[in-house]
Amino acid sequence: MSKSMRLEALLALKAAIEEAVPELRTDMPGKAHVIVGKALPSKNACFPALVIDPIRFRYLPDPEHDFFEPDPSHIVLCVGRFEATIQLRLVAATPAERFEYQEKILEAFLRTEGHPGVLLTEVDAIPELGTWLAAWEFDEDEWQDEKVFDQQLWAVATLTGVLPALVTRAGVYRINDLRLGTTGDFTTEFTPDTFDSSKAIDRVRVNQDGTIEKVT
Questions:
Q1: Does residue 189 share a domain with residue 103?
Q2: Average pLDDT over residues 180-208
Q3: How much is the pTM?
Q4: 96 and 62 within one domain
């Protein structure tokens, strides 16, 4: 797997915020209003600016289960989840402008139908893992001021992110048709080719629910 799940999840969060707040987009080469990582823009950086700062990721194991089958010999399993603590750091040219962006970002989280306060982002940037969802929940419904430079305040909010822990296993083949043959003939040598042809073998099919049915 050439890409990082956690990085792609953060980039999906970045894209969702940019879609919700178009003012945070930029087409200027070398500049970004929304930054993923710990880099803080300088005093001369373009404003408004938002830093998505991953503080830590915690892995929580769960019973593994099938998630995605990219091809007949590979399977993607979900073996738990990552819980992330994320800080959003927002700065703008004026306090009034910053408050406006705070409200727009918060609204993007609150308008999720059925899960207000949780922003769901779809991640499909890693084809071998299929498409999966990351959930980002506001820990608090308000922003806290944090001083960075003289006469400049950042508004800081904390998110909790949850994304699946996915792994790929090779050499895995699904059983689509399971059959069992029984015989009382212990003198004849049987081969796989005679399983379906020998009249001395009683054959049954084992279904997924555990029931069996006779195969003629």
A1: no
A2: 80
A3: 0.74
A4: yes
